Amino acid sequence: MSNVLVDLSNSMAAAAEKAGASTVTVNARRRMPASGIAFAADLVLTADHTVEREDGISVFLPDKTEVNASLAGRDPGSDLAVLRLEKSVAAPAAPAAGVRIGQLVLALGRPSPDGLEASLGVISALGGPVRTPRGSLERYIRTDTTPYPGFSGGPLADAEGRVAGINTSGFGRGVALTIPADLAWKVAQQLAEHGSIQHGYLGVRSEAVEIAAAVQKALKREQASGLLVISVEKDSPAEAGELMVGDILAAIDGVPVPDHDTLFARLAGDIVGKSVPVEVLRGGQPKTLKIKIGARQ
Amino acid sequence: MNLPVMLDSALDELYARIRPVLAVVRDGRRGAGAGILAGNGLVLTNLHVVRGRHPVEVTLDDDRTYPAKLVASDKRVDLALLEIPVDGGAAAVLSKDSPRTGELVYAFGHPWGQRNVLTGGVLSAVTSVHGQDGEVPILRADVQLAPGNSGGPLLNAAGEVLGLNAMIFGGDQSVAIPAGVVREFLEAARREHVPEGVL
After folding, report:
1. Which residues of A are catalytic?
2. Among B91, B122, B146, where does a domain finish?
3. In this structure, is residue B3 part of a structural domain?
4. Average pLDDT, stretch B96-124?
5. Is residue B176 included in any domain, yes or no?
6. How far apart are CA A168 and CA A122, in angstroms?
7. Which of A32, A36, A16, A208 has its CA nearest to residue A105?
8. Burial A167-199 (b: 16+ CB within 10 A, else e)
9. Is the ipTM of this complex over 0.95?
10. Which tens digit of pLDDT belongs to each residue from B68-78?
11. Rounded Cα distance, A231 and A226, in Å
């Protein structure tokens, strides 16, 4: 019998196989192993909370060979960690360009060297920024796939076997989220290079306030809120950049900041050490300052 | 026709094809299990569905009920073969393909006593469990199952039997005995229990 249902079934199995070729078993905790995604021949991305030890870490490749690995870097805030393999033997995954709500996806895991495991679902929602138990996450994907034990660190694959994100149940409250591939890859690259994610420092205390409709017009966009600066720390990047008490912070580096979570998420990563445009509302008028973002100690 | 409509009609076809070979198996206890017709009055089900000391009855899709005789069983893989006084008849097709992780699967059975319920998902894992008598190959799927699904088929997208649903863990993942194991059981039953020429 050959029909569209059989074709769809074959496509999903092929997608699992393709993304599964980059899905590995990560042995870095006492309980059952977790999963990981190879994003370079010698680098594996996994969920930080599954890496409970820094020595004696190993990875099982899909062909069941065991390769020793070391911890290259970790970011508890986004629950991501990068492992460096002793040998360049992994097959790197292909990240997906983007996702859409309603799209068919497979959550994949390799909780043991026995074989790949899968669960079917759809993209349920896209969200973020969100506070996590140990930091923040800029964006996340929610799906209705079932996170089986050992699935943390494994890929969310689209119908073509590309990696749409990395799954984790490490943010607590029994919630499984997926970190979008573009964001995860960005964090992974920084972890591989620097070992940790730098968090930016501005040096202000602020409070979210409404932006009046007339002022939004002056901003030339719809933005219902911004961050009112209520104090500026001495010798801080904010002071050096001439940010003043009473300014309303509207955007950083072109990204609107309607609330603290967005500001926090925007200040993480590669922005540290860079001079970026900071848009403020001063006396109801938009003004762009140049501020060199510092590193939070 | 657009793609979802084509998928719907393919699923209708699958349902219509499998319904005549699905049976209800009761052994007088509360609740019922499922079974699939293997041709010539033979019905495959799980051993745990018919383990009671009570006489077993099998109801077919046409609502006729027959007394059933246990002709073979294998505790190790939780399989039982029943015989009912029916000649010929339809038989389920056991898949000969290797099961693939991620392929679409459908479970068919009588969860909570509701007849002929189809639930869908994907094949989650092709694996094995440590049983009392050694390693038993199993299939796991993310289809929804409930009591009453036991003994019913796990189908592939072509409507062939990939396995016989056997156990439920925590409600969100089913376990099925793979078609290869079912086929071996049938062949052993033919050699040992069933007169030549019946299967």
Report:
1. 49, 79, 152
2. B91
3. no
4. 94
5. yes
6. 16
7. A16
8. bbbbbeeeebbbbbbebbbbbbbbbbeeeebbb
9. no
10. 999 999 988 88
11. 15
Supply the range of the domain harboring residue B59: 13-91
Question: Percent of chain B having pLDDT more than 90?
Answer: 64
Which of B67, B91, B115 terminates a domain? The answer is B91
The answer to whether the CB of A209 falls within 8 A of the CB of A225 is yes
Q: What are phi and psi of A206, to 5 degrees?
A: -145, 170
| Domains in chain A, CATH or no CATH each | 1-196 (2.40.10.120), 200-295 (2.30.42.10)
Residues B112, B135 within the same domain: yes
In DSSP terms, A290 is beta-bridged to: A277
Please tell me whether residues B82 and B138 are part of one structural domain: no
Residue among A263, A144, A136 nearest A201 (CA): A263
Identity (one letter) of the amino acid at A64?
K
For residue A191 the two structure tokens come to 């972890």
Q: pLDDT tens digit string along A175-218?
A: 899 999 999 999 999 999 989 888 889 999 999 999 999 999 99
The H or E element containing residue A112 is none
Which CATH number is B161's domain given? 2.40.10.10
| CA closest to B17 among chain A residues | A1
pLDDT in tens, B19-58: 999 999 998 777 789 999 999 899 999 998 997 678 999 9
In this predicted structure, the answer to whether residue B199 has a pLDDT above a threshold of 50 is no
Which pLDDT belongs to residue A226? 95
CB A44 within 8 A of CB B138: no
**pLDDT < 70: residue spans in chain A:** 1-2
Residue type, A148: Y
Chain B residues with CB inside 8 Å of A4's CB?
A: 3, 6-7, 10
For the question of residue B48 being annotated catalytic, the response is yes
A135-137 and A117-127 beta bridge pairing: unpaired
pLDDT tens-digit readout, B161-198:
999 998 655 455 689 999 999 999 999 998 876 654 44
Nearest Cβ partner for B126 among A4, A108, A115: A115
Q: Residue B136: what residue type? A: V
Q: What is the pLDDT of residue A90?
A: 94
Residue with the two structure tokens 């092709």: B126
Instruction: Give the C-alpha separation, A176 to A152, whole Å.
Output: 9
- B97 as an active site residue: the answer is no
Give the per-residue pLDDT at B167. 67
Question: What count of other Cβ atoms lies within 10 Å of the Cβ of residue B158?
Answer: 19
Three-state secondary structure call for residue A281: strand
Chain CA centroid to CA B153, Å: 3
Q: Read out DSSP for A205-219? A: EEEEEE--HHHHHHH
Between B7, B100, B172, which is nearest A8 by CB? B7
Q: Kindly state the tokens that stand for B197.
A: 């020429």
